[in-house]
């Protein structure tokens, strides 16, 4: 009976999540077209921040309740899921063009952030307050980079000449904000229900964080990229993945650590290695300035193998 109730709640949450993602992307793209903001930049900023809200909520609540392993596992696992699962599905459906800035600046920065901050956390056994401040400084640098692109209207590999939205600025803003709110509440429902089901299966907190919880909190990115693909904005999908990972590891992890340093168990070494490896693999697959459909197959296969391996090691 309990399992049936959780399945119903997850199904309702997924339905609301799809609706929220559609409203968020429609409103955000409408604003981008009206103000001349390219979809890639939009994905790196607003959409990435919005789709990272579930990770922020789960991580903060987990630390507050003393479930640190779930918080850390969710942040690491979500970064891996965004690349291997979300981008894997996106690439499988449609070939993605990669701009020079993404190849030589954004992806390398994501690799550096993932390797340095997670590696330092493993080395010292915790994400200290000092390391948290370093994360926030890294986020500030990223934010300054976005401002530079906006102020100088740097072309990230796509045209700045976009058609204006048919809706008003107010309506597009309302759609984006309401969509963001729906994503927030539906994700909370999905995560809570998934945690109940996973714990009933005897899964540890660390494995629960990097698998079930990470998968559920990555669903906004998944559906946001799906909507973006339908609207032929593949660059928005790539920008959302990169931006979401940077928000997760710099802003969310940094903010939590500054308020309350968090322990990082040794058993996350495998997960950190996979997260860094996934980032490097993304860069390697992007060298030809395109992420092809066969690359999507590789990314998806690696994610399935990783999850199966992690659950087996539970």
Fold and architecture overview:
- This protein is mainly alpha-helical.
- It has one domain: NCX, central ion-binding region (A middle domain of Talin 1, Up-down Bundle).
- It has 12 helices and 4 strands, in the order H-H-H-H-E-H-E-H-H-H-H-H-E-H-E-H.
- Strands 1-4 form a two-stranded antiparallel sheet. Strands 2-3 form a two-stranded antiparallel sheet.
- The longest helix is centred in the N-terminal third of the chain and has 34 residues.
- The two termini are 26 Å apart.
- About 4% of the residues have low confidence.
Enumerate how many helices there are, as a single number. 12
Spell the H/E element sequence: HHHHEHEHHHHHEHEH
Report the span from N to C terminus: 26 Å
Task: Extract low-pLDDT stretches.
Answer: 155-165
- What is the CATH fold-level name? A middle domain of Talin 1
Task: Assess the beta-strand content as a share of residues.
Answer: under 5%
Assigned CATH superfamily? NCX, central ion-binding region
Overall 3D geometry?
Answer: globular
Whole-angstrom Rg = 18 Å
- Strand order in space, largest sheet: 1-4
Kindly report the average pLDDT value.
81
Main features:
single chain, 314 residues, mainly alpha, A middle domain of Talin 1, two-stranded antiparallel ribbon, 3% strand
